[in-house]
Design goal:
The protein is an alpha/beta fold. The protein contains 22 helices and 27 strands. The strands form nine sheets. It has a six-stranded mixed sheet with strand order 13-18-17-16-14-15, with helices on both faces. The chain has a four-stranded antiparallel sheet with strand order 22-21-26-27. It has a three-stranded parallel sheet with strand order 4-5-6, with no helix packed on it. Bound molecules: 1-deoxynojirimycin (NOJ). Pfam families: Fn3-like (PF14310), Glyco_hydro_3 (PF00933), Glyco_hydro_3_C (PF01915).
Length: about 725
């Protein structure tokens, strides 16, 4: 974070002038109580909406109509450093009090969960990362930054960089999947998009990397559960996305709820100070997750709130989200000598530096109305992102795409719910802005009709189902999970299709008509049987406001699907966790009974990370490996041997055959996405630096070990070629 000398001087002089109360206040993100039957912190209100206790519409109604008590008096006294607000009028009103009525006029930093788009909601991260399109990831982040900054939001609690290997964990939807390399690329792109365009203060926000760290490794995929892992696993898998984002200049970090090897991240000095700041060079501030300082008491790591607050601050946690424990207890902890004034000053300085970097001292307010939210350009980007995030999983006999005049029956309750396109954590989404699948498909295919057969929230209506099966020449079944089934606090022990949706698949199995399933879900699902019962399967995730159009255009071929899976699909729930880059065992799954597998299912995932089909056919040619002093390069031609222009994702995996620690069976080390016109070919070059062929051991050392490596270039589909090479470093 670069500040001018003048700005640095201003910060120092402010710190000299501040009273202890004013300093501690900077470390406080005020909890907001809302009058009108919802006397709960704002963060909890958001959680209620996220977990389905409150519908999105109810949430917005409360936000719009409730009389809000935003601690105006405390802001006036300079006792609040940050708040969460999502409307420009409130943001301006409170900021004005902070600037004009508090003694030192220090602006508030206003944060919000802007996870995958602000008003223009784009695909959930799990889907968008599957585009393998770095530029797209950057542009959607930039759009969200601009839309929200114009509404007075300076700080996004995003990107979420939790590696998720266990599909039972509901928060799989919020991150970019199971692979550290892809998620690191995603992280870098998101930081660039959110933070880098500083040509105007209205163009950027502070990013917040979360949840630091290991949150996705919660035991059994149960949210908030304990996490244990070796140093080597932490460094090789869970830390790389955070390091990539820090290297890209991320300005804030959120500590995770979970304990890591016995120490809750909120009070984990080794993670928040030794590693994050001293080793990785992070120079921004760290915020707790909502109410997490108080939860240290429940964790049993602190006997009371004062101890929890002192431990958190000492660990390197600068801002308290939601509990006001810093506000209430830090003075006492200073008086008793549990913490030092220097520690308080350090935290204050880090927060003031981010406020300065955001331009808040010069531009505290927003002008109304200035936002380009939901503009035609933004909607076009949302459509592009949605289309590029769709994964074609199955397409028997090239059933798809369908001619525009096809007579189609659409069934499945999710198809007709515009509220379900948003995905979890889209708190600024409004149902009226979402395009349902029925809206999109009936527009694209004039002879299509939706039949209200039920199957998810309501029982199947047999008579209407029979009518639907009789009407169309092609039957489209939309199935999956409600938005409230993924995101925070939505772990599921059984990740098969909820409700009676499996029965709908069964009804299609022996039908004498082509059938297509469109999946809408925020996690991989256990759908092996169902996939076998239909002719084509499109994984559409939760694609944001333009979902209906994107899916319809994919069915018609106006969009040629090109995304890949960011997470492996288990065959059954009991197989979780299943992920492609697992360590070798001494007994890899084989024909013998005494190998590492389950007795009752086929070994391996149903679909692996990196898998996805296209309407085009590609062929690899002239694949050559070149070794230079610094790198390994793979050069190849990708030919489109079909009649349809398409996009191909060329992936480079490396297998380190022998190591001083057991190595993963393979790891992604590079990718390129290319557009190839029909009957054309494009040269592709993939490169991996030799220094990136090492791994971290349990002593925290990076090891680059000589030996045999296998380099595999593949499209995650029918093309694949491997080279074995002995390397000395
Ligand atoms: C809890 C969630 O874990 C976190 O992701 C979110 O940013 C905060 N609440 C604030 O809403």
């Amino acid at each position: 974070m670069k500040l001018s000398a003048e700005q640095e001087t201003k910060i120092q002089s402010l710190i000299r002038e501040m009273t202890l109360d004013e300093k501690i206040a900077q470390l406080n993100q005020a909890s907001v109580s809302i009058v009108g039957g919802f006397d709960v912190p704002f963060s909890e209100l958001i959680e209620m909406m996220t977990d389905g206790r409150l519908s999105q519409d109810e949430f917005h109604k409360i936000m719009a109509t409730s009389e809000k008590d935003y601690h105006e008096e405390e802001i006036k006294q300079g006792l609040v450093g940050s708040i969460m607000v999502q409307d420009p009028e409130t943001s301006n009103r409170l900021q004005k009090i902070a600037i004009e009525e508090s003694r030192l006029g220090i602006p508030l930093i206003i944060g919000l969960d802007v996870i995958h788009g602000y008003k223009t909601v784009v695909p959930i991260a799990l889907a968008e990362a599957g585009s393998f399109d770095r530029d797209l990831m950057r542009r959607t982040a930039q759009m969200a930054a601009k839309e929200s900054r114009a509404d007075g939001i300076h700080w996004h609690f995003a990107p979420m960089l939790d590696i998720s290997r266990d599909a039972r964990w509901g928060r799989v939807s919020e991150g970019g999947g199971e692979d550290p390399y892809l998620l690191s690329q995603f992280a870098k792109a998101k930081i660039e998009g959110l933070q880098n365009d500083q040509s105007s203060h209205l163009n950027y926000v502070a990013a917040c990397l979360k949840h630091y760290v290991g949150y996705g490794a919660c035991e059994g995929g149960r949210d908030y559960n304990t996490v244990s892992m070796s140093e080597s696993l932490l460094r090789n898998v869970y830390l790389p996305p955070f390091r990539a984002a820090i290297d890209a200049g991320a300005t804030t970090v959120m500590a995770a709820f979970n304990d890591l090897n016995g120490v809750p991240c909120t009070v984990n000095r080794e993670m928040l100070t030794d590693k994050l700041r001293e080793e990785f060079g992070f120079d921004g501030f760290v915020v707790s997750d909502a109410n997490a300082i108080r939860e240290c008491v429940a964790h049993g790591i602190a006997s009371d709130e004062a101890e929890a607050g002192a431990k958190a601050l000492y660990a390197g946690l600068d801002m308290d989200m939601g509990t006001e424990i810093y506000l209430k207890t830090l003075k006492g902890s200073l008086a008793s000598g549990t913490i030092s004034l220097e520690t308080v000053d350090q935290a204050v300085e880090r927060i003031l530096r981010v406020k300065m970097w955001l331009g808040l001292f010069d531009h505290p307010y927003v002008e109304l109305p200035e936002s380009d939210e939901l503009s035609e350009d933004n909607k076009a980007l949302a459509l592009e992102a949605a289309e590029k995030s769709i994964v074609l999983l199955k397409n028997k006999d090239d059933l798809l795409p369908l001619p525009i005049d096809t007579k189609i029956s659409i069934i499945g309750e999710l198809a007709n719910k515009a509220s379900e396109v948003s995905g979890a954590w889209a708190i600024s989404f409004r149902e009226k802005d979402g395009v349902s699948l029925v809206e999109g498909i009936t527009k694209e295919f004039p002879n299509s009709r939706y039949f209200e057969v039920g199957g998810l929230e309501t029982p199947i209506n047999e008579a209407i189902l029979q009518e639907a099966l009789a009407y169309g020449d092609v039957i489209i079944l939309v199935a999956g999970e409600l938005v409230s089934m993924s995101g925070e606090a939505t772990s599921r022990a059984d990740i098969s299709l909820p409700g009676e949706q499996s029965k709908l698949f069964a009804a299609l199995e022996n039908l004498d008509k082509p059938t297509v399933a469109i999946l809408m879900n925020g996690r991989p699902m256990a759908i092996e049987k169902e996939v076998g019962q239909v002719d084509a399967v499109i994984e559409a995730w939760h694609l944001g406001i333009q979902m209906g159009h994107a899916v319809a255009r994919t069915l018609s071929g106006a969009n040629n699907p090109s995304a890949r899976l960011t997470v492996s699909f288990p065959r059954v729930s009991g197989q979780c966790p299943v992920y492609y880059n697992h360590p070798n065992t001494g007994r890899p799954a084989g024909r013998s009974k005494f190998t590492s597998k389950y007795m009752d299912i086929e070994p391996g995932a149903l679909y692996d990370f990196g898998y996805g089909l296209s309407y085009s056919r590609f062929a690899f040619g002239n694949v050559v490996l070149k070794e230079t002093a610094e790198s390994i390069q793979i050069i190849l031609d990708v030919s489109n041997i079909s009649d349809r222009d398409g996009e191909e994702v060329v992936q480079l995996y490396v297998t380190d055959k022998v190591g001083s620690l057991v190595r993963p069976v393979k790891e992604l080390k590079g990718f390129e996405k290319v557009t190839v016109a029909s009957k054309e070919k494009v040269a592709v070059e993939l490169r991996v630096d030799k220094k990136d062929l090492g791994f971290w051991n349990n002593q925290g050392q990076y090891c680059l070990e000589d030996g045999d490596f296998i380099f595999t270039v593949t499209d995650g589909n029918e093309n694949s070629e491997s080279f074995e090479l002995n390397l000395s470093f």
